[in-house]
Design goal:
404 residues, mainly beta, 4 domains, elongated
Length: 404
Amino acid sequence: MNKISFYSNVFVFLAVVLVILPVNAQNMIITPELTETPAAEKKTAPDGNGVDVLCLPDAYLIDPENCNPLGPSAYLTDYVEKGGVYPEPPFTGRKIDPELMEVPYKYARINVDNSEVIKLYNSAEDAASNNNPVGTISSGAIRYVSYTDVVDIGSGHYVHSKGRDLWLRASPAAVSTSTLGRTFTKTPEYEFGWIVEGCNPYLEPNYNLGMSPVYYNREDVVNLYETIETKDTTWFRIGEHQWVDRIHFRAAHFNTTPPPEIKSDRWIEVDLLEQVVMVYENYELIYACMVATGMAPYYTQPGIFQIYKKNESENMTGSFEADQSDYYWLEDVPFTMYFDKLRAFHGAYWRAWYGYEQSHGCVNMSNGDAHWLYNWADLGEWVYVHDPSGKTPTDPELYDDGGA
């Protein structure tokens, strides 16, 4: 056989093989016949070539048909079906105007021993030399003055008290400029709350199952997706595998339907359990902040009240213990609104932390939050105070006039 005949026969053989075997038209690679995929599992790729493809990671509550929702998609779908939220929306509340934190007062703290009676003088020089005292401020746990002038003599600071128009030794105090309140243009889709102690959330509502690497700072505000009660604590789910307990969190459980006694679309709600104030207008939540209400036995009284008096500032003093160890002297307490005898909403410049019961019955707020509420509220505004846990006494006979 000559060479031409040999090569001709080889060419014919290869042509027959190529016709018989399946060939990928794009790259001319010989492929075996594909096994048929059951209809329930087979998905068509976007290019229509019949090859199975995975869906992009997402929650697929409806069969996507053109991809397989496996792997991350299966996890996310299961997470959403069990009540999770994906993707998690941003928190919609806005911080209040920082100018609301400013007050036209300067404060000084009497920072000597609580048991010491403070003497008052007609001049800074008399105060520095302890000559000719003309008045006193009783011993007590919390004593602040609003001052108009300060003089340093030797190693001491001497201030002129606006409230007493006399001089005394006291240290000018820095007032917290933080504000906890958030405003809303409409009621948010999800509940929310504040971190009260910086923390890493737990992966599950269980102290023994590990913690998330995500860290939240005190006063961070986050959406709340689920609340559950266990024998140990209340758990709040603030994200995927992110659970915080009551030690670390305060929740705004808002309700845009007022109690039946309130015949208005405007009211203020005080949640004693969560230490949160919420404000409603046109049956929408428009504002919320953390506060500090009355500590036992000087509770903030549950009930429905109305604001009956507003003062831009008040001097407050008093004590409740028999030995007067809890005596307080507080000058120019700003943005005060009385709603239940001497119990009032007001700025508490002497406090640094909120979210805990601390007062003698008043609702203590940061200066900025108290200012916002003071601007919004009119005389006669409704106030709804309640404790969802039922632990705060409700018998009016147990309550005196209250205080700061």
